[in-house]
Amino acid sequence: MGATIRRTWGQLNELDRALRTLNWGVWAFLFGSVGSAKLAAGTTAGKIKTVADIDFRVGGRLYSKAATDDLWNLSGETTLGTGVYKAAILYLDASGTATYTLTAAATSAALALRAVGDLTLGGYVSTKSVIGVYVSTAAQNWGSGGLGGTYYNGIPEAAYSSAGNDRSEERRVGKECSPRC
User: Fold this and answer.
1) pLDDT tens-digit profile of 63-72?
2) Which residues contact 127 (CB under 8 A, 6 or more apart)?
3) Confidence class of residue 138 from pLDDT cuts 50, 70 and 90?
4) Is 70 left (phi over 0), alpha (psi -120 to 50) or beta?
5) Residue 165 has what pLDDT?
6) CB 86 within 8 A of CB 104
7) Tens of pLDDT along 77-99?
8) What is the arrangement of strands in the sheet containing 39-41, beginning at the earlier edge strand?
9) In degrees rounded to 5, what are phi and psi of residue 167?
10) Of 3, 35, 51, 109, which shows the fewest CB atoms inside 10 Å?
11) 39-41 and 33-34 strand pairing
12) CB-based contacts of 59: which residues, under 8 Å, 6+ apart?
């Protein structure tokens, strides 16, 4: 006769969480910003600026970019529906060119932020540095509505400390086990 044992990753797999945090620290050193860019809404609607000069690393090499208005342009993104959130991961490459990646739609700002950790840990781009993250408001109008969400310099701990920890799985045990188990 078999039994079902439920294993919850967030509670039982502390080693996995510790390894994620260690890997994140190494990754942040090689591909993260050094100090704070002081991200804010740009002068033009739908754009993000840096208020301060920023030093950042790409592949462990140090680069610098002067404070720049309207650096990331998110104005072309589709307006979000009611109760929908997204996060934009803000990158700079070695030449100082700004790009971004949007997470999938989420039902809360916290879930959008969690998706940042899943994206950056799972498939970071080795030619760019993560300068910060912008988490949208619900029903964000990227172009004309302004960017009134939350700005994070670098990647906040909440993005990687909870990444992947809400998974659970069930395993069947019993019948498959030999008499010597």
Assistant:
1) 999 999 999 9
2) 58, 59, 93, 94
3) confident
4) left
5) 43
6) yes
7) 888 888 899 999 999 999 999 99
8) 39-41, 47-50, 72-73
9) -85, 150
10) 3
11) unpaired
12) 30, 31, 126, 127
